[in-house]
Design a protein that fits this description.
By secondary structure, this protein is mainly β. It has one domain (2-145): Metal Binding Protein, Guanine Nucleotide Exchange Factor, Chain A (Beta Complex), CATH 2.170.150.70. It contains 3 helices and 11 strands. The protein has helices at residues 30-36, 87-90, 134-140; strands spanning 2-7, 14-20, 23-27, 40-46, 50-53, 58-62, 67-72, 78-83, 92-96, 107-112, 130-132. The strands form 2 sheets. An 8-stranded mixed β-sheet has the order 6-7-8-9-4-3-10-11. A 3-stranded antiparallel β-sheet has the order 1-2-5, with no helix packed on it.
Amino acid sequence: MTDKTGQCMCGAVTFTATDVPSTASICHCEMCRRWTGSALIGVDLPTAGLTWHNEAQIATLQSSDWAERAWCRRCGSALYFHFTLNEDMAAWTEVPIGLFDDPSAFEITSEIYIDEKPHSFAFEGADRRKQMTRAECVKKFPALDS
């Protein structure tokens, strides 16, 4: 794990993160697709080690009973996905990989909601990643079913 920096498209919001893992994941759920315009390719970061700069430019939405999403007020860049219901899961915040100053530093190791992936999406190396369907995700994290 290492420290990393990043920013939104216009640079109004920047962040620093400590203890950043070298792995990323892909979410194909409908909400992530609509939020990002594609699949969410994100990095799970320890919330306590994530510092946002110029927070006045961050807008948030409680997008479900269990999570919130944030974006830059100026350029609209998706900034993060954060669980708000479950204390253990709230210790993590998922940040889109494209916000990192060096997005090539991550290996994609899992895909979730794989049964909701549009047929036109094809990511190299899918046969080497852990994959979970919607039902498997809900079984592992029951709050997702609300």
